[in-house]
Amino acid sequence: MGFGALQGYFFASLLAFQKQGNIRANRWLALLVFLVAYFLTAEVIMLSGLHRYFPHVIGTGFVFWYMLGGLVYIYTRLLGDHEFRFSWWDALHLLPFIYIMAQMSRFYLLPADRKVALFEMAVSRTPSYQLSYLFLSVLLLGYFFISVRGLTRSISLKKEASRFFEIAHLSWVRTLLIAFTAYLVFDTVMGYLLLSQGNDAESLSRLTMMIMTLFVFIVAYTAVRDPQKLFPEEKMPVMTTKLQAAQVLSIAPFKKKYQNSALSPADAQKHLARLLRLMEKEKPYLNSELKLPDLAEMLDLSTYHLSQVLNQEMQQSFYEFVNVYRIKEAQQRMLDPAYKDYTILGIALDAGFNSKTSFNRMFKKCTGLTPSSYLKKNAELTQQAG
């Protein structure tokens, strides 16, 4: 376990400076691996008797568990959404950590000899400890469930948007998280039974340390053996500030991808013309639940051929293509006097977006301005023209 901690520190430093793949997610994973390594270090120090030489380490590893759920959740958000940005709401994930730090503050402020004495007394577990143990387990299970659910949704969206280069990475993380969740269920049930019967749960603590060590080994092994799974190539297109501009992507990869397709270039152009007419006349993008199969069915096309048309002819994924139309619709409504009583959020939702956050990000990516700046700029232009 000590070797696992050392490997964790080493690998965390490599992740922190990794320039391939999703850089922000890599750095968040680096923080996660570093904290796992510290948790293992603190546990090894206490189990080996070295706590007498490092008394202020006692109890510091325990608080890691109150951070783990939020860290994993944010990591999966960063993986699934490249445009995810932190807000002050995300600070709420620190509340469990702040709570336990407040509870442990008096212990942390004790002199070294007092900490050692309390630790070596091995006081029996009280009912309040059992309650906090159960609370922590339920908290972690809740976070892990939401994280797995979010990853599953992201994998589905990546498939629909033809982001196949990211799916293996997301699937790997989801599998790892499901396995850890299964162990956590076992640990919760067995741990609570042992504590409620007055038995020591030290054996479970050692097993948990082994599981966390295994986590570090798996991440490090994957990075060496299959780096593409941990650091997928970053091929996210960058939108220009002009609403109708093409994506900055080479068309060569798409030609290679669809070189065996039965859809000829001439047919692809015909289907593209039909698609553009459909988008202009029927405005299916106003449906916030619109999916690639839905649009393909409207055109009597297979999802594969529709993806080919979008990727090859427009150099866009399905969601980029649809969201550009939604932004154009929102722009028109924001300047239409008929919508003067609508809020920006109301217009965004009517245009097909699911949230104001995603709307704001896409709006700025397409126009170079925030929605409020766009309205202000147009008001200034109207005044100058008047």
Offer a quick outline of the entry.
The chain has 386 residues and is mainly alpha-helical. The chain has helices at residues 2-16, 23-47, 65-80, 95-108, 112-121, 127-160, 164-196, 202-225, 227-230, 252-257, 265-281, 292-298, 303-314, 318-334, 344-350, 356-367, 371-385. It is built from 17 helices and no strands.
Largest sheet: none
Strand content: under 5%
Order of helices and strands: HHHHHHHHHHHHHHHHH
The oligomerization state is single chain
- Ends: how far apart? 74 Å
Shape: elongated
Number of helices: 17
Tally of DSSP β-strands? 0
Using only CA atoms, what is the Rg? 26 Å
Low-confidence stretches: 123-128, 233-256
Structural class: mainly alpha
Mean pLDDT: 78
- Amount of helix: 55-70%
Number of separate structural domains: 2
Fold blueprint:
Layout: H1 2-16, H2 23-47, H3 65-80, H4 95-108, H5 112-121, H6 127-160, H7 164-196, H8 202-225, H9 227-230, H10 252-257, H11 265-281, H12 292-298, H13 303-314, H14 318-334, H15 344-350, H16 356-367, H17 371-385
